[in-house]
Amino acid sequence: MRHAAIFARVALPALLLGLAACAPAPIYKIAPGAIAATPMQVAQTPEQYMHGQVIWGGRVVDVRNLPDHSEIEILAYPLDSSQRPKFSAGGSGRFIALLPGYAEPMNYPAGAPITVDGQLDGSRAGKVGEADYVFPLVSVAQSHVWTAEEMRSGHPNIGFGVGVGVGIR
């Protein structure tokens, strides 16, 4: 009984703290007053959010290179505490990331997880398939395409079941 009490007081909190410490830190600093709205919410009233900072992420849908800038269409997902897209949470709209210059499409492959930090710059009407759609526009200051290893990092490969067991994912 005494050993169980010691475990509960010392080892268990240390174990939980250790697991929490495995999660990578956020990659971008969130400015005071940054917008917490989703792309879907911003698309409904874009004028309300003009020039606010956002940190959004999701999956790359398409890359378009234009004469003076590039546009990356992104299907948005909520972000975890490390600012990685959480695909299990369901999509939260689409937006267009505006990048200066040329964006190499091979560096932004369709389906790749991405996080961008930038400033809202209005919206644009467009289409998703045959449906009309309003895309918020984000002038990107920084962007990060996540590797498979980065998406897995910080997720402990420990599973608990009846009793205690350890499994490899």
Summary keywords:
169 residues; 5 strands; lipoprotein; globular; 36% strand; alpha+beta; OB fold (Dihydrolipoamide Acetyltransferase, E2P)
Q: Structural class from helices and strands?
A: alpha+beta
CATH homologous superfamily title of the domain at 39-152: Nucleic acid-binding proteins
SSE string, helices as H and strands as E: HHEEEEEH
- As an assembly, this protein is single chain
Number of helices: 3
Give the N-to-C terminal Cα separation: 34 Å
CATH class of the domain at 39-152: Mainly Beta
Fraction of residues in β-strands: 35-45%
Number of strands: 5
Task: Map the helices and strands.
Elements: H1 2-21, H2 39-44, E1 53-65, E2 69-77, E3 94-100, E4 113-128, E5 131-145, H3 148-152
Parallel strand pairs: 3-5
Antiparallel strand pairs: 1-2, 1-4, 2-3, 4-5
Task: Please characterize this protein's 3D structure.
It is globular and about 40 Å long. A 5-stranded mixed barrel has the order 1-2-3-5-4. With 169 residues, the protein is of the alpha+beta class. The protein contains 3 helices and 5 strands. Strand 4 (113-128) and strand 5 (131-145) form a beta hairpin. The protein has a domain at 39-152: Nucleic acid-binding proteins (OB fold (Dihydrolipoamide Acetyltransferase, E2P), Beta Barrel). Helix content is 18%, strand content 36%.
Task: Give the gist of this structure.
This protein is of the alpha+beta class. It is built from three helices and five strands.
